[in-house]
Design goal:
The protein contains 15 helices and 23 strands. By secondary structure, it is of the alpha/beta class. The chain folds into 2 domains: 324 residues, TIM Barrel, CATH 3.20.20.80; 129 residues, putative beta-Galactosidase from caulobacter crescentus (Chondroitinase Ac, Chain A, domain 3). A hairpin with a 2-residue loop joins strand 1 and strand 2. The longest helix has 26 residues. The chain is globular, with a radius of gyration of 25 Å. Bound molecules: (2R,3S,4R,5S)-2-(hydroxymethyl)piperidine-3,4,5-triol.
């Protein structure tokens, strides 16, 4: 009879973080289970463990499960070929001690366009490590992507980082890696160094041409129109295929930046196959390439980045602009899951997080400069992240399916209820962004003017349709009425509504809300100023 020797029953090694397809979206799996990144990105100079140590209580209070933190090429490879890992190890140790994960940002050849994190031995040897040049031939503080020496030096360092992670991070505290940071040509869209000038006259790579031919219907409109307007040619130089001008300069640069990133990412993945991505600084409205950092992983360049850099799992936006919804939507595609590594750490962060997870099935969300967040936005972000943490199993289950939505005001001046449909069910949502007024008995949801000095609060949430007539809402400042699809003659009533919370995915009842709190069965209300979760059951009558 066989006996079990416990000393030989090894615990299986945690599986590598990876993406898996789910419905029309993707989920991040950490140790084999769906994982939503409730992140915060630390400031550029806050990544040294000695400095960071005091901030972990803040991260915990914010209900974060992941810290997004930089790794500096100049610090990890101060002498060529000789690596110093104490900062990386310190980050991993601190995160692990708090049961948190890390997204590491490789500040390599480029950080916000510039090459400020290149080691001194790179910066001071421009013969070996050449710079980009402007139209006057002046050297820029930007390593040119048209140099194999630059690319290979970066790739060797990045590979060493991933090799080191493979050795020390056996439980996969690090779950994602960002390759470079906000790449972009500025103040001119095109590099004019000699190698770049030569490449500009070379044929457009055949794999890009093949992509144009095979994906005509799904190309980003900007790329399709540019190609067709220039004659739809299937061979020729960049200006021949796409027409001369600054927009073609950007396409050309995007291809070469992306090829460089591909080389760096592939070198890293050969050591440890973590999911990788690259982030973009978004353009201000009505600006031209070069006026904004051109050629980064921008939504109108996604075809170029996908063809040239297949080792990246997705490209990401850093969304600081107020039109969060529009930018998030542009990066949300079946072939590009949304991950927002940087967002404004404002009151609106709570709303934006709900939109990202609920409407975009985002892998994660992460306000920037998180260690310096102020009290009011911190309280609101913590409330939103707590709701997301409780709802995580449901969110993951409904990822990529039309049974979930983020609820945020579609436009600032939304005059009518926001209509959201979940299959054959219509929700009419109004948003209460002000602190709760003192209400007279029986007046639940007044819509009159509010005193001007009232505190601005977020209003938003997530709704998940968990059954034909059952929904779960989490959020703040929402009033929702229900209707059937226009084709139906039914009226929809509220059978019951309860406030509760989830513990490890299991519903825990707190109280029934069938009187004043639902305006005697007329609506569901998540009151302003307090994050709550409610479960509602509906019924239909004629
Ligand atoms: C975007 C960059 O990616 C960050 O590293 C940081 O520089 C922020 N901008 C500052 O707002």
């Amino acid at each position: 009879m066989a006996c079990t020797d416990s000393s030989t029953t090894a615990t299986p090694a945690p599986s590598l973080p990876r993406l898996e397809r789910h419905g029309s979206a993707s989920r991040l799996l950490v140790d084999g289970r769906p994982f939503l990144v409730r992140g915060g990105e630390i400031g550029n100079s806050s990544g040294e463990p000695g400095y960071l140590a005091e901030h972990w209580d803040t991260f915990e209070a914010l209900q974060m499960n992941t810290v997004v933190a930089p790794v500096y090429w100049d610090q990890v490879e101060p002498v060529e070929g000789s690596f110093a890992w104490s900062m990386v190890d310190g980050l991993i140790d601190q995160a692990r001690a708090r049961g948190m994960h890390l997204v590491l940002l490789w500040f390599g050849s480029w950080k916000n366009s510039m090459s400020c994190y290149a080691p001194a031995w790179v910066k001071t040897d421009p013969e070996r490590f050449p710079r980009s040049r402007d139209a006057h031939g002046r050297a820029l503080e930007i390593l040119t992507p048209f140099s194999e020496e630059n690319r290979d030096a970066d790739a060797r360092a990045f590979a060493a980082l991933l090799r080191h992670l493979a050795e020390v991070d056996v439980d996969h505290t690090v779950i994602l890696v960002q390759v470079e940071n906000e790449i972009g040509m500025i103040p001119e869209a095109r590099d004019r160094c000699a190698a770049a000038e030569r490449a500009y006259g070379e044929p457009v790579p055949p794999e890009l041409i093949a992509h144009l031919q095979e994906n005509g219907g799904t190309l980003t409109p900007e790329l399709r129109i540019r190609w067709q307007d220039a004659g739809g040619r299937v061979a020729g130089s960049w200006p021949e295929v796409f027409g001369p001008g600054v927009w073609t300069d950007e396409l050309f640069m995007a291809w070469h930046f992306a090829r460089y990133v591909q080389h760096v990412a592939a070198a890293g993945k050969a050591e440890l196959d973590l999911p990788m991505y690259t982030n973009a600084a978004l353009p201000r409205p009505a600006t031209l390439p070069g006026q904004y950092p051109a050629a980064g992983p921008l939504p109108h360049l996604i075809d170029i980045w996908q063809v040239a850099a297949p080792s990246l799992s997705f490209i990401s936006p850093d969304i600081y602009f107020p039109d969060f919804v529009q930018w998030a939507d542009r990066y949300t595609r079946p072939d590009n899951p949304l991950f927002v590594p940087e967002a404004l750490r404002s009151i609106e962060a709570a709303e934006n997080a709900f939109y990202a997870y609920g409407s975009c099935s985002a892998i994660g969300f992460s306000p920037f400069g998180i260690e310096t967040i102020e009290e009011a936005p911190a309280t609101m972000l913590a409330g939103a992240y707590d709701v997301v943490a409780q709802l995580s199993p449901l969110i993951s289950e409904h990822t990529g399916h039309p049974t979930m939505a983020g609820l945020v005001k579609p436009v600032e001046d939304q005059r009518f209820p926001h209509r959201v449909t979940l299959g054959d069910l219509a929700l009419n949502v109004t948003y209460e962004r002000m602190a709760a007024p003192a209400l007279a008995d029986g007046v639940i949801n007044e819509s009159g003017d509010r005193p001007r000095d009232e505190t601005r609060l977020p209003a938003g949430g997530i709704v998940i349709r968990t059954g034909a007539d059952e929904l779960v809402f989490g959020g703040i400042g929402l009033v929702v009425t229900f209707g059937p699809s226009p084709a139906s003659e039914d009226t929809i009533g509220i059978l019951s509504c309860e406030e509760g919370h989830f513990v490890d995915g299991v519903w825990q009842h707190i109280r029934w809300l069938n009187g004043d709190q639902t305006h005697q069965g007329r609506h569901l209300r998540l009151e302003p100023g307090r994050f709550t979760i409610q479960r509602i059951r509906l019924y239909r009558y004629r």
